[in-house]
Design brief:
The protein is of the alpha+beta class and 83 residues long. The chain has one domain. It has 3 helices and 4 strands. The chain has a two-stranded antiparallel sheet. Helix 1 runs antiparallel to helix 3. The radius of gyration is 16 Å and the shape is elongated.
Length: 83
């Protein structure tokens, strides 16, 4: 499976093509968000406004790390010989 990172501007880059410094910064950001809390939102709907459903939750720790694909970034950094 090819993993992609989505930048702030919406650009998608293969994780394997990220520069080492960029990987390190992403990993730091993921760790910080896992401590502070990651807000996730989801919703579904139908054809009427009353059919729409929306919810949100805040993930912390391992749940947040998993949601942000932390292992893929750390694995790639290790593949580059930087861990």
């Amino acid at each position: 499976m090819i993993n992609y990172h989505t930048c702030k501007d919406g650009k998608k880059i293969k994780i394997s093509e990220l520069e080492t410094d960029h990987l390190v910064n992403i990993i730091k950001m993921i760790i910080q968000k896992s401590k502070d809390g990651l807000k996730v939102r989801w919703g579904c709907g139908g054809s009427l406004a009353s059919d729409f459903d929306y919810d949100e939750n805040i993930l912390y720790g391992e749940a947040a790390l998993k949601r942000m694909n932390y292992d893929a970034y750390v694995t790639e950094l290790a593949n580059k010989g930087k861990v």
